[in-house]
Fold these 2 entries.
Entry 1:
Amino acid sequence: MKIYVPVDSSAKSVGSESVAGTIRAALPDAQIVRNGSRGMLWLEPLVEVETELGRVAYGPIFPEDAESLAQAIASNGTHHKFLGVTADLPWIREQNRLTFARVGISDPLNPTDYVELGGLAGLRNAVAQPHTIVDQVMTSGLRGRGGAGFPAAIKWRTVAQCEADVKYLCINADEGDSGTFADRMLMEGDPFTLIEGMAITAIATGASVGFIYIRSEYPDAIRVMNAALTIAREQGWIGNSILGSEFTFDAYVRVGAGSYVCGEETAMLESLEGKRGMVRPKPPIPALEGLFGKPTVINNVMTIAAVPYILTHGGEAYADFGTEKSTGTSVYQLAGNIAQGGIVELGFGVTLRHLVDHFGSGTRSGEPLRAVQVGGPLGAYLSKGQLDVPMDYESLAGIDAMLGHGGIVVFDDSVDMAQQARFAMEFCAEESCGKCTPCRIGSTRGVEVIDLIIRGEDRAGNRDLLVDLCEVMTDGSLCAMGGLTPMPVLSALTKFPEDFGLLPEGHTT
């Protein structure tokens, strides 16, 4: 008998370790597999059992439910938390899981399981035809999933064409945006996919050394990735001769320094070099002069994790998902005041309403939805009248919003949007690296001006001052920290003026 109990940190936070221990003690002959999370976080800990029908799910199984579940499994009886065949659950069945295809399926550190579930096919193709890798990625239309949306193939081609004694590959796993957890879940649930993607990228670009920059708040991801890299070396998937080929590439984990701004690529490079995480001016771009002044590929976890699918099935197969310009899938993360939070992987173009109402089942509180922030703490607040926007780069940009890393944070009608705008400025002031004046000083002044508006001091005049200040921050900041902070502030100010004690723009009475 095979029983799956997640070891993902989200499941551990609600008792999966205790659940696994109880089931193991009650059913000593059963094989307990510690898998990643399926992404249905409101059902964690989700326990699955292999049966003649397939894998069936029970959840949420809290520690107090574990003994009764073990008894039901042993006696082939029923249990009140039985959910049915896992693959038939609508949340799973209706997704397009390409990047997350193996997450939650097997032991994340079992290399045999990884290969049996289709792993390494992309890397084998890359080794056999290295000259086709960049073309396949170009055909796929893969764009950076960290927020900027820059075409991955263009960045790779730039690095590949550079002449240098060493080139680097840096994976940005400093997942600091509010409401985001996809990087963590993939690293904890299917680390070999990231490693395979890194090896393919290295072959394509000539990189010989890679670093995975993981935020210090992710101890489980750090542990799993370190273990997975050791296993991958033993298997010959990375190291001196990848799969017995002429290609050499090795990778290492580096733990972040606890700074949000280190999620910006050049600040991450500074941190990797042992310096204070501060933004570098560009040019030069990292693809030409990056880590230690060498050509460097910098991509987000979700970008590189999409690469094995592309090299296995071809760029055209990947481009069949999504929209004309936003191709492939995005891993959306539902969080905040939402009834069913978790991971949803679908092709670009699904509406925000479908994600929030269908997959998320509305607010957790049951109160009416008022706002949704898309794209992390620097993303715009969308009103309930904007929920039909397609979730792709172009559609969101058309309404002065951004996709970012795919985080979706839901608020019900109890939210104070003036306080949310203040939080955005305060967050920027706290996390600014201090390199440029518009970000360092502008955010501090922004908090002060919002406080004046909230207190009712010359609200109209201070609103105009706040708008001017946001324009300076947008145009003058060195990086997105200060450049994008005005996005949530102005969206809150424009769409929810009543929370600031203001009339909508253009109204005088």
Entry 2:
Amino acid sequence: MTTRLYIPRETTASSLGAEMLVEAISTEAKYRNLPIEIVRNGSRGACFLEPLIEVETFTGRVGYGPVQLEDIPDLFDANFLTGGQHRLALGSVDALPWFKQQERLTFARCGLIAATSVAEYTKLGGFAGLRAALALSGADVVKTVLDSGLRGRGGAAFPTGIKWKTVLDAEADQKYIVCNADEGDSGTFADRMIMEGDPLSLIEGMIIAGIAVGATKGYVYLRSEYPLTQQILDEAIANAAAAGYLGSNVAGSGKAFDLEIRMGAGAYICGEETSLLESLEGKRGQIRFKPPLPALKGLFGKPTIVNNVITLATVPVIFEKGAKHYASFGRGRSLGTLPFQLGGNVKAGGLIEKAFGLTLRQLIEQFGGGTASGKPLRAVQVGGPLGAYFPESLLDTPLDYEDFAKAGGMLGHGGVVVFDTSVNLAKMARFSMEFCSVESCGKCTPCRIGSVRGMETIDRIVAAKNEQERERQHLVLKDLCETMESASLCAMGGLTPMPVMSAVKHFKEDFD
């Protein structure tokens, strides 16, 4: 009897040796005359367990990890193909507390199936949302998204349904759906994980968006640093087209929708929607003035929905389970779930999908298991390189959009980076300004020049010979940050002051 093994074809697992494991296990099984089938699934999201191998047994899937090349002979000797005991044995991965405490909606299939298989995707509820959407009018599809409370998961948290309704109501001979997959924030990997582990959910979400507003063409703008993601997405798009879900007759509905990938060139600023559109049109990635909004005059001057990967990949869940079901998760105006990406100095980093409302402390302690170094936690940055630095005293802040904003931070794309007591926040604040100066598109003066002056001012603060000079430079930095925040054309310059001033506010001793 042939035994099925699941070994991730995913960037994190691959960087830790998954590809070599596939070859070694195949060779060892052939030598021992044991028939096996290796399925290339996505990652479950527990980065600290990668490479994670799961074996299909009579009692269910049994996990082993993290597996190294030298472990292979021992695993075979321990009869791991039948779920045998071994020091790396994890039992049922679903039963591990790290997974049991999660509420996986968007990532429900991630790591469970062969990533690009239409058959396996459909077996676990895939395209059920599309079928439900095809039975509705465009206006009713948009209303369902509105009723779900889904907000943009790329960072801005703008209500998705409102953006869709604007495009639906716009008169045009052509409309577009654009997926912003230019995931460039430090400590974030949710977009990549869903594209490598369940890419058909993104494809289905884009099809539903197209049908809702009358768009027949979609583009995925993918960051250049994701070559494996591109391969997997290409396969998934080809498989979806072959199965009749893309093309001139989507699922036999008579409606058309085509999809293709466009690769970015490594510019952080192209994560901003108008810069992304400029780049898609073959121009230099620079901010556009708003208005007009992309929803009215976007790609090639046509009405365009621009949503990020997680937003679009969540749409099928809403139509499969119902808007009310999705809205039953979360609290206040922050409804549904968010895939938090926990990294930095933690023992158990990875992707944790939870409903809005748990605290930052719960996320770090229940899932992260404390710092990897064993030193006390000192700071946490949430929301990417432009997010605020929170001290230990703010760890009980609930993780939702409104409460986090009240505390002086932002959730952004859900990246959470932990630092221990060895961190110097003056250096981190300077890095924020340096990052802005390097990645600025250069169109507006506050961002282009302000970031350079910010680095110089922080250097003067740290080098100050007396308290009077130091305080004078602190006032200059505060004034500079206020100018960048209020006068920059986009969030690049407008948000750079957030990590800088939060570092000054909570960790001023590092600047002395």
